[in-house]
Design a protein that fits this description.
Layout (H helix, E strand, L loop, with lengths): L9 H18 L6 E5 L12 E2 L9 E2 L3 E4 L9 E9 L16 E5 L11 E4 L3 E4 L2 E4 L9 E2 L10 E3 L7 H9 L4 E5 L3 E6 L4 E2 L10 E2 L2 H10 L4 E4 L7 H11 L4 E5 L10 H7 L3 E5 L3 E2 L5 E5 L2 E6 L3 H19 L10 E5 L3 E2 L5 E9 L6 E4 L8 H6 L2 E5 L5 E2 L4 E6 L1
Parallel strand pairs: 5-6, 13-16, 13-17, 14-15, 17-21, 19-24, 22-25
Antiparallel strand pairs: 1-12, 2-11, 3-10, 4-6, 4-7, 5-9, 8-9, 18-20, 20-21, 22-28, 23-27, 24-25, 24-26, 26-28
Helix pairs in contact: 1-6, 3-6
The structure holds adenosine monophosphate and magnesium ion.
Adenosine monophosphate binds next to helix 3.
Length: 413
């Protein structure tokens, strides 16, 4: 057995994973491959090319309100009446625009239309009344009001989105606005999933009286997919050294290996000994958290692996806390800090000190009135309670009691 140094705190363990993730980004191992996807299917993928402005944004001084384009200096004494010399619609061509707005003149203008030269502000239509070819204005404007100047958002060739960005709706809107109907994205990293345990049977098999179905491979596959990876499910490994070793070898063909079960201190918890035999380097053996205390992180034959505890909730939580940032780095994504939101605790929590706890909880309420309370559960094997929960309350290791009404950190699911 490798020597067990002091078990790291949650933060220490997380930072260690983040350091290795940073290392992966720096050297780009494995060499990252890319593929082209249609913009419609780019959501959730990681951008592999920079997106630059193909022209100035906006390309013309854009009116942001319906109203009248004016010279702000004309509106010093109110109300003022100006001559309306024309109208500019969104999409107007240069020949539709007056040569230059003179003092005493106004042009009716629509949102998204180019402001005419000579005008330096738009008065909202709400503050005007039209009388034939004249408009009475009842509110002053400052120079620049309701006009976005040419190139104020970006200049042609400016970098708008950098490679490594997870494509969400806003990034996709940017891609569309610069005319990219296809994007280069990183190929999804392959993640091998190896569930272990003599009691664990395939979902499509009838379990014996003391057996349970394999749920971990599927919950992990779901998490891998929503992290941008491609799950590769291996057959279930029995608690037997030779076969376990074979399957680990198989798993190391992927970019990352996730094992579940067999990492505690039991006589048949063989994951660690088998990895020791394969000369694995252990980066941590356990973290001071609950659920998931026995979680293991290491590297063998040039690949990273996590040994996640077999209890289904422990498996889910330890993936979120530790495997996700490494997988994001393998997928080419920029680092994202782990952020806990805060909500008001609905019902008192009593627990023991020593470990940082991530307890399944239900966040409810709406608008600014969110409240959170622990799910009633039977411990880290209780998948049904976890499925009814929608987040985890984070309990710091030094708290024994948290009163109802306190703000508590929450990890959303
Ligand atoms: P272990 O970490 O191997 O000691 O397993 C801890 C608990 O998780 C035991 O109750 C196992 O039966 C259960 N377990 C292990 N692997 C799985 C799996 N793949 N799916 C569902 N439960 C599992
Ligand atoms: Mg086991």
């Amino acid at each position: 057995m490798p020597e067990s140094p002091k078990i790291p705190s949650f933060e220490e363990a997380r930072h260690l994973v983040e350091q290795h993730a940073a290392g992966l980004r720096a050297v780009s191992t494995p060499p990252r491959t890319t593929e082209t996807v249609d913009l419609l299917h780019a959501s959730g993928r990681v951008l592999a090319e920079p997106i630059r402005a193909d022209r100035d944004f906006p390309p013309f001084p854009r009116a942001t309100r319906d109203g009248y384009a004016v010279r702000s200096a004309d509106l010093r004494g109110l109300p003022t009446t100006l001559d309306v010399i024309g109208e500019i619609k969104a999409g107007a061509m240069p020949e539709d625009l007056p040569a230059k707005l003179q003092s005493g003149q106004a042009v009716a203008i629509m949102t998204g239309a180019p402001a005419p030269s000579g005008a330096d502000a738009i008065v909202m239509v709400e503050y005007t009344s039209r009388h034939g070819n004249r408009v009475e204005i009842t509110k002053t404007v400052a120079a620049g009001d309701n006009i976005v100047p040419t190139a104020a958002e970006a200049r042609r060739q400016d970098l708008l989105i950098e490679a490594g960005t997870l494509l969400d709706e806003a990034a996709i809107a940017v891609a569309a606005s610069v005319g990219k109907s296809e994007l280069r994205v990183y190929t999804r990293p392959r993640v091998a999933v190896l569930s272990t345990g003599d009691e664990v049977v395939n979902v499509n098999r009838q379990p014996g009286p003391n057996q349970i179905r394999n749920s971990n491979s599927y919950s992990l596959a779901a998490q891998i997919l929503n992290t941008g990876g491609e799950p590769v499910l291996l057959p279930i490994a029995p608690d037997e050294t030779r076969r376990l070793k074979e399957l680990i070898e198989e798993g190391l063909k992927s970019d990352l290996l996730l094992l579940t079960g067999g990492v505690s201190m039991g006589k048949y918890d063989l994951v660690e000994p088998v990895l020791v035999e394969s000369k694995a380097e252990f980066l941590f053996l356990g973290a001071q958290i609950q659920p998931g205390r026995p979680v293991v992180f290491g590297r063998v034959k040039g690949k990273y692996f996590f040994g996640l505890p077999g209890n289904p909730v422990s498996t889910m939580v330890t993936f979120e806390l530790f495997a996700r940032p490494l997988l994001e780095a393998l997928g080419g994504m920029k680092p994202r800090p782990l952020v806990f939101l805060h909500a008001r605790l609905k019902t008192e929590i009593k627990t023991k000190t020593g470990l940082k706890r991530f307890l399944p909880a239900v966040l409810s309420g709406e608008f600014e009135r969110s409240e959170v309370e622990l799910a009633r559960w039977q411990g880290s094997g209780d998948i049904a309670a976890t499925a009814r929960a929608n987040c985890y309350i984070v309990v710091p290791p030094d708290r024994e009691r948290i009163a109802a009404g306190e703000w508590v950190p929450v990890l959303l699911r």
